[in-house]
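so the lab meeting is tmrw and i was supposed to have these ready like two days ago... anyway. pasting both below. for each one the top line is the aa sequence and the line under it is the structure tokens. i havent really looked at them closely yet so no promises
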Amino acid sequence: MMSVHSTALVHPAAKLGKGVVIGPYSIVGEHVEIGDHTVIGPHVVVTGHTRIGCDNRIFQFCSIGEQPQDKKYAGEPTRLEIGDRNTIREFCTFNCGTAQDAGVTRLGNDNWIMAYVHLAHDCQVGNQTIFANNAQLAGHVHVGDWAILGGFTVVHQFVRIGAHSITAMGTILLQDLPPFVMAAGNPAEPRSINAEGLKRRGFSGEAVTAVKRAYKSLYKSGMKLDEARAVIAAESVAVPELALLSDFLAAPGRGIIR
């Protein structure tokens, strides 16, 4: 059964699914859709053209779907889309997209978002990620599945963060972080691969070894980037897991961290 606290303000046109809970003093705007069994805590503002999936939990004092912090924004009906089974802790701020990009900010499924995280306009976040406290994403950032951002990680606009990568606390990412790579520092530097994370996710010993070999080609061999890219692409034929890295390196971006 749906439960809306008597002090909450929910626009009559908002669409609420089965079993949705809206906590005290929260505000839900006109163009908001909230899926089944999602729980909105107290003092949360959900506004804009925002669609939230099922079984999410959004804790108190979050601002979800507000206008982008972009001077070019002129009131266009851009969107925020949040998938299913996400945990979004206190004081998070997720903004809608802009007309200069796809017009939508997205958070996928099964993400663990800790307190004070900021998702700026047009960010695209995959599934099964973890953002520790105060991770901050500028506009147009893309984050792959299973990425982990340490506390106080700051990400420059248009940066890409590859799947299964991880950053240390206080990392400043000014360039792209390839899949599988551990990074730390200001500015960020590659330190190793996320071997333990890969093992926990069921990567075989052979696949982890291949990723280590690819990391050495990219960062330890002295090869130029084009040479390392060619070597990794060739190895990905025999080791499908390396396709994530090969495809990432082949796509345009801000250049990878070095």
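ok protien two:
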Amino acid sequence: MITIKAINRLGKWMYKIYMGIGIFAVAFLATCVISSVIMRYFFGLSYAALEEFMTTLFAFTTFWGIGICIIEDEHIVIDSFYDFFPPLIKKWVTFFNYLIVLFVDWIIIKYGLSYTLQYGKHLSMGMRIPTYWMYGIIPLGASIAFVCIIIKLIRIARAPLSDYEKKIVLK
């Protein structure tokens, strides 16, 4: 029998792997950019494959990071009007907002997958690999974000109303 404690441990383990991949990708991207700049400005060398790889890695970090931003609540919120609502309304508004995000993410998955399958057989100019490896980042990242949004919706539904009371921020 699977317990809540086991599910929580599995969730924490998956989160650490997810964050680790994201952190590694950003660090690797930074290393590639620094190396490319040094090679270009000090040695006059430029490699099309490296430039294309960095663009692909940048797309990966962007779409991989969507799910991280959802889980960590790292998004822009203009809450001056939102703070006037009672906790129950805040909870429903938050839930509804994430339903909209889920719908938009579903559209990204649907059309990203369609685009990847339609145009992914061509070879890229720099790396000379099928472009579905590059375009596939979009539906992959959006699918992971979809799971993160579902988790967020479950958390919102289970959260007590006290989580939505006005919080005083001291600066």
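from a quick look at the 2nd one: The chain has a mean pLDDT of 87. The chain is about 75% helix and 0% strand. will dig more after coffe
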